[in-house]
From TrEMBL:
Protein name: Response regulator
Protein species of origin: Siminovitchia acidinfaciens
Biological process per Gene Ontology, one example term: regulation of DNA-templated transcription
InterPro entries: AfsR-DnrI-RedD_regulator, BTAD, CheY-like_superfamily, Sig_transdc_resp-reg_C-effctor, Sig_transdc_resp-reg_receiver, TPR-like_helical_dom_sf, WH-like_DNA-bd_sf
Residues annotated as domain Response regulatory: 2-116
Main location: cytoplasm
Length: 376
C-alpha cells in the first residue's frame, strides 16, 4: 500500500512515518510540509492513501481533500488532526478514517485494516463478472446479477441511513438539496444538529456500499447531494424498458416476461415510505398496462394457459378492474372451464355492486348472455 503524508508539523510527520514503517504492508513514497506540493505529488504518483493534516497554512486539509477527490477519486484520504471539531465534515467528504493526534500504534493499525478492507473489496469487484443491481420492488435489496440473481446481505447501521439512501436512489437523475433532506428526515432538529446527522448518515451509507463492493458515489456539490450509480443497475430502469420493447414491431416474449418478473411487489412496499407513494402508484399502473398487453399477445399466439396465469396475477393486485374480469372470462371459455367463467362474472357483479352500486358494462353482459345461450 503506497502512502503520501502531508503535515506542516515535521515532528508529527516523522512520528507518523516511523509508525507506518513498522507496518509491513505500507510504503511511504512521499512526505510534504506544503499542501500544494503534496497535491502535485498525489496527482503524479497516484498513491493508495494520503494521510492528511487538517490544520495547515495556505489551504486546509478539508479543502485539499476536496481537490484530491475531484481529481484523484481512487485515492483514499485519512485525516490526522489534534481537533475533533472537524469529524462531521470529514465524514461528509467520505474519508476512510479520522485519526486524532498524538497518534497511537493500535489506532493506526485499525486504520490500516480499514484501508485493506477497501482494497480487498475493490479487487473482488474487479475480478467479478457479475453486475450489481439495486432492487426497489417490494423492498430495498441488493443483488449480484450473473447467470442468476444472488442476494447480498446488507447491514444498515440505522433505518434513517437506509431511507436516505432509498430517497437518493429515488432521485438518482437529479441533485437533492441538503436543506430538503434535513427538512424531510430531521425536521425536529436544530439546523446545526440536522447537518451533523445528515453528514453522519451519508458517511454510514458510503461505508455500507463500500462493504458490499457497490461502486456508487454520493457527490456533494453546492449544498446538494447527487448519487452517481456508475455501472450499478436499478431494477426500475430495467423494468421500464418494457415500453421500448413493445414499440418494436415484434416484441420478444421471453424478454418481456423477464422484465415483468422484476415486479415482485409494489415499489418499496414493505418500507411504506410516504414520499414513495406517487411513484408506487405510477409503477403499478405501468405494470398493469404492460401485463395486460402481454396477456393479449399470448392470446393471439394461442398460449392461453400462460395468459391466464398473468391475468390471475393482475386481478390479485388490481381486483377492481372490470376489464381483467372480462379477459379471464374469455380465457376460461377458451380453456373449457365453464364453472370459472360463471364464477368470474358473478364476482364481477358483486364487486361492482358493492364498490360502485353499478352493473357490468353492456358489452360484458351481452357477451355473457350470448355465451350462456350457446351452451344452453
Amino acid at each position: 500500500m503506497r502512502a503520501i503524508l502531508i503535515d506542516d508539523e515535521p515532528l508529527a510527520m516523522e512520528h507518523m512515518e516511523k509508525l507506518l514503517k513498522d507496518i509491513a504492508v505500507v510504503e511511504v513514497i512521499g512526505k510534504y510540509l506544503s499542501p500544494l506540493q503534496g497535491l502535485k505529488a498525489i496527482m503524479h504518483e497516484q498513491p493508495d492513501v494520503v494521510f492528511l493534516d487538517i490544520e495547515m497554512p495556505t489551504i486546509s486539509g478539508i479543502e485539499l481533500a476536496e481537490n484530491i477527490q475531484s481529481t484523484c477519486s481512487n485515492v483514499h484520504v485519512v485525516f490526522v488532526t489534534a481537533y475533533d471539531e472537524y469529524a462531521v465534515k470529514a465524514f461528509e467528504l467520505n474519508a476512510v478514517d479520522y485519526v486524532m493526534k498524538p497518534i497511537q500504534r493500535k489506532r493506526l493499525n485499525e486504520t490500516i485494516k480499514r484501508l485493506q478492507l477497501f482494497e480487498d473489496t475493490n479487487v473482488e469487484k474487479g475480478e467479478s463478472t457479475c453486475t450489481g443491481m439495486i432492487c426497489c420492488f417490494q423492498t430495498l435489496r441488493f443483488v449480484w446479477e450473473g447467470d442468476e440473481l444472488e442476494a447480498i446481505d446488507v447491514h444498515w447501521r440505522t433505518t434513517k441511513a437506509k431511507e436516505l439512501f432509498a430517497y437518493l436512489v429515488h432521485h438518482r437523475r437529479e441533485p437533492v438539496g441538503k436543506e430538503v433532506l434535513i427538512d424531510l428526515f430531521w425536521a425536529e432538529s436544530e439546523p446545526e444538529k440536522g447537518y451533523a446527522q445528515l453528514y453522519a448518515a451519508i458517511y454510514q451509507i458510503r461505508k455500507t456500499l463500500a462493504s458490499i463492493g457497490f461502486d456508487i458515489e454520493i457527490k456533494s456539490r453546492e449544498q446538494t447531494y447527487m448519487i452517481d450509480m456508475q455501472q450499478i443497475k436499478v431494477d426500475i430502469d430495467e423494468f421500464e424498458r418494457l415500453e421500448e420493447i413493445f414499440n418494436e414491431s415484434h416484441p420478444e416474449l421471453e424478454s418481456v416476461q423477464k422484465l415483468l418478473d422484476l415486479y415482485s411487489g409494489d415499489y418499496l412496499e414493505k418500507e411504506s415510505y410516504l414520499w414513495a407513494e406517487s411513484e408506487r402508484e405510477r409503477l403499478r399502473v405501468f405494470w398493469l398496462y404492460f401485463t395486460q398487453k402481454t396477456a393479449e399477445m399470448l392470446i393471439q399466439k394461442k398460449e392461453h394457459t400462460k395468459a391466464l396465469l398473468i391475468c390471475q396475477r393482475v386481478q390479485a393486485l388490481n381486483p377492481y378492474s372490470e376489464e381483467i374480469y372480462f379477459m379471464l372470462m374469455r380465457l376460461y371459455d377458451l380453456l373449457g372451464e365453464r364453472h370459472f367463467v360463471e364464477q368470474q362474472y358473478h364476482r364481477l357483479e358483486d364487486m361492482l355492486f358493492e364498490e360502485y352500486g353499478t352493473e357490468p358494462a353492456p358489452e360484458i353482459s351481452q357477451w355473457y348472455q350470448n355465451w350462456k345461450g350457446i351452451l344452453a
